Amino acid sequence: MHRWADVPTKSISAGGVDFAYRELGAHHGGTPVVFLVHLAAVLDNWDPRIMDGIAAKHHVVAFDNRGVGASSGSPSDSVEQMASDAIAFIEAMGFAQVDLFGLSMGGMIAQEIVLKVPQLVRKMILAATGPAGGEGISTMARVAHCDLLRGLLTGQDPKQFLFFTRTPGGIEAGKAFLARLKERSENRDKEITISAYLAQLRAVKAWGRKQPADLSVVRQPALIVNGDDDRMVPTANSHELAWRLPNSTLIIYPDAGHGGVFQFHADFVPKAIEFLDR
């Protein structure tokens, strides 16, 4: 039995791109859960506790966006293009219908997918994300640059600042999360390049300035999750999504930031499974 820390990386071609991906869990029957990654992330940025936890009951699949990590091609600088790429990947995998788990930028991609091809999506988990034109999304780059600098100056991983609160609980949760990300010691993914990271920042900025979409047409059940103190995609956006998606459930974790699902993985995973099985 594989765990997320040692599952092999595979590749599949779709739309002229060789997508690097990993899959884990029960392949027989059921709807696969496709994970859509956050800003600057590669396959190794998914929390092993979440991947192993959901894979205990479901077929879990995560992939690198084009031009990111081990995937080929030039990186996308629009959320719409990332959604088209994700659809091409899902179709190449032969999935007739999927559940989507979108974190941050991945949650923006999930919204685009469900609007473009609603029949492809059964349910969505939208973590630490917001709607097009949402509050503070267009200035995410400013927050990211500031915390990259803080990380350099203090010799810490910037995710400690970007994803977690500066309270004792948040700091401890950040250290534990960063330790879990190192559990995979062999066959790790390639880090994102500076050019791909800058392309993603342009995509998020444009999404933040875009006219809001009519989400009332989305009938799929949505589980919306965040911490109560998200600096990257302000928590108000999670409340906004819950208000605008007609079939949604909202979970807000206390003393938690952008990485609320990582900090509270022990509570979140059973709730995510219950939502997917409902």
What is the secondary structure topology, with strand pairs?
Blueprint (H helix, E strand, L loop, with lengths): L9 E5 L2 E8 L8 E4 L11 H8 L4 E4 L15 H14 L5 E6 L1 H12 L4 E7 L12 H15 L4 H4 L5 H14 L12 H16 L12 E6 L8 H9 L3 E6 L6 H4 L1 H13 L1
Helix pairs in contact: 1-10, 2-3
Low-confidence blocks of residues: none
* Beta-strand percentage range: 15-25%
**Within the largest sheet, what's the order of strands?**
1-2-4-3-5-6-7-8
**Quick one: how many beta strands?**
8
Please write the CATH class name.
Alpha Beta
What is the radius of gyration?
A: 17 Å
The proportion of residues forming helix, as a percent range, comes to 25-40%
Distance between the termini: 27 Å
Q: Could you name the CATH topology?
A: Rossmann fold
Tell me what you see in this structure.
This protein is α/β, with parallel strands linked by helices and 278 residues long. It has a single domain, classed as Rossmann fold, CATH 3.40.50. The protein has helices at 48-55, 79-92, 105-116, 140-154, 159-162, 168-181, 194-209, 236-244, 260-263, 265-277, and strands at residues 10-14, 17-24, 33-36, 60-63, 98-103, 121-127, 222-227, 248-253. Helix 1 (48-55) runs parallel beside helix 10 (265-277). It is globular, with a radius of gyration of 17 Å.
